[in-house]
Write a structure and sequence with these properties.
By secondary structure, the chain is an alpha+beta fold. The chain has four helices and five strands; from the N terminus they run ββαβββααα. Residues 4-10 have low confidence and may be disordered. Its main location: cytoplasm.
């Protein structure tokens, strides 16, 4: 079952049922949504319990069972689907800075492979953060004096 959310803070609450197995990939579910709702897969972001689902993973990877409810966030057309590049304090892009360092130590082909893997790992880590994780991180950053918070979620 899917609920649709619009990324612009307006909530459009429709329920749709899709018959899929737990072995289906998230990308397959997005294709089904695209066929039924005419929303391109690159504009879809599927969430389960506050966590974004990665296209290459299977529903079972997230312990999504038969009666699970997914949320669909619809990105505006033309919005980049990738997570934006982090920047350093001096305004330089992190990936650009990493590319410079890698170029000093590796051949161009090897540096490109290493950087590509770093970007994939970074994006996967960001996608795996739940809303609860982000809230705990924000509290920890904004209120460092609060005792008893487990900092391990930030690792």
């Amino acid at each position: 079952m899917l609920k649709c959310l619009n990324d612009m803070e307006t909530l459009i609450c429709f329920k749709y049922n899709f018959k899929v197995t737990e072995d289906e990939k998230v990308s397959t579910v997005k294709e089904l949504v695209s066929e039924r709702l005419n929303i391109p897969p690159n504009q879809q972001r599927l969430l389960y319990k506050g966590k974004a689902l990665a296209d290459e993973h299977r529903l079972s990877d997230y312990s999504i069972g038969p009666e699970a409810k997914l949320n669909l966030v619809i990105r505006p057309a033309g919005e980049r689907s990738a997570i934006s590049e982090p920047t350093l304090a001096n305004g330089t892009g992190v990936w650009q800075s990493i590319a410079v360092v890698l170029a000093k130590h590796f051949s161009p082909a090897d540096a490109a492979k290493v950087q590509e893997q770093l970007i994939k790992d970074y994006e996967r880590s960001i996608r795996q953060l739940s809303l609860d994780d982000i809230e705990r991180m924000a509290i920890r950053i904004l209120h460092p004096e609060v005792e008893g918070l487990d900092p391990s979620f930030m690792d």
